[in-house]
Write a structure and sequence with these properties.
Length: 295
């Protein structure tokens, strides 16, 4: 890495063992020269698939760091959702967000690839960070307008509706990638076998765990997976890699629907440059694998 290359300060909050796409996003971020990843935070993903979901995410993060031979700070987030909209679920992950937000080191980008629990907790614990130079990028929420979601409620939102309400009401700079946008990042098995699997043990693992997840959890015939968490990394790298509109910040009903907007606005990404997003990842993974082979 060129020591003079400017970087963006980044935190990534990830429910890494929820599905099979967080892994691609984490690797993409850590292989990107302009992202200074100050920490990874293990997030819960409810209890429908595991009673230890946050710890499962932590184990997956550690596994990926082993494949990458990288030493990056990792903290545990909350084990479950916040109790209500006035009460935090304190964690080392929330403390890390607060610590980085309060530093006088320029902008901070915080990506949430699952529920917003740890961001809501950080805001409840230290409300002043809503006015700091912090941008939250959230993969989550149902479609706006007349789109019909495949599943209701949207999964990341459903795992902590109260947390989403805290964050959306806070006035913090917020970029949202809703379901109708993040599902348009599909990659087929054939492309994964051609561009990812040959990239050393890490590439093989990424493809194998994706196949395994689909075989376990998807009943219908399938030969693809949406890399729905990767847009957060693409937007960190290139905020212009998408088309967005400002929306009066909504809140959410207990059923997961939008309620009328407030006085703040959020940036809602409606389209993404998926060619850039995916090809950048493929190229960086190939480069990493080639470097590993030479060592």
């Amino acid at each position: 890495m060129n020591a003079r290359q400017p970087t963006r300060r980044v935190l990534i909050n990830t429910d890494a063992k929820n599905e099979a796409d967080d892994q691609f996003a984490i690797v993409h971020a850590l292989l990107s020269e302009t992202l200074d990843v100050r920490g990874l935070i293990a997030a819960h993903f409810g209890d429908s698939r595991s009673s230890t979901s946050m710890l499962d995410s932590r184990k997956e993060i550690d596994l990926l760091l082993g494949h990458l031979s990288m030493n990056v700070r990792v903290e545990n987030g909350a084990e479950g959702p916040i109790p209500d909209e006035q009460t935090a679920a304190p964690s080392a992950g929330a403390e890390l967000i607060i610590d980085e937000a309060k530093k006088d080191e320029g902008p901070l980008l915080v990506a949430f690839l699952g529920p917003l629990t740890d961001m809501a907790s950080a805001l409840l614990m230290e409300p002043s960070i809503a006015d700091a130079d912090v941008t939250v990028i959230w993969i989550g929420g149902p479609p706006y307008g007349d789109y019909e979601p495949e599943k209701w409620p949207e999964f990341n939102l459903s795992n902590d509706v109260a947390a989403a309400n805290v964050v959306f009401r806070s006035g913090i700079d917020l970029w949202q990638v809703p379901w109708s946008t993040y599902v348009r990042t599909a990659v087929g098995y054939a492309e994964l076998d051609e561009k990812v699997a040959p990239c050393g043990p890490l590439g093989r693992y990424l493809v194998d765990q994706l196949h395994e997840w689909n075989a376990t959890w998807v009943a219908q015939p399938i030969e693809h997976r949406a890399l729905g968490d990767s847009p957060a990394i693409g937007l960190m790298l290139n905020p212009a890699a998408g088309i967005y509109r400002p929306v009066a910040a909504p809140t959410f009903s207990s059923e997961g629907g939008y309620l009328p907007g407030g006085k703040h606005t959020v940036r809602v990404y409606e389209q993404l440059d998926t060619r850039y997003l995916l090809e950048d990842f493929f190229a960086k993974l190939r480069r990493f694998a080639a470097h590993q082979e030479r060592q």
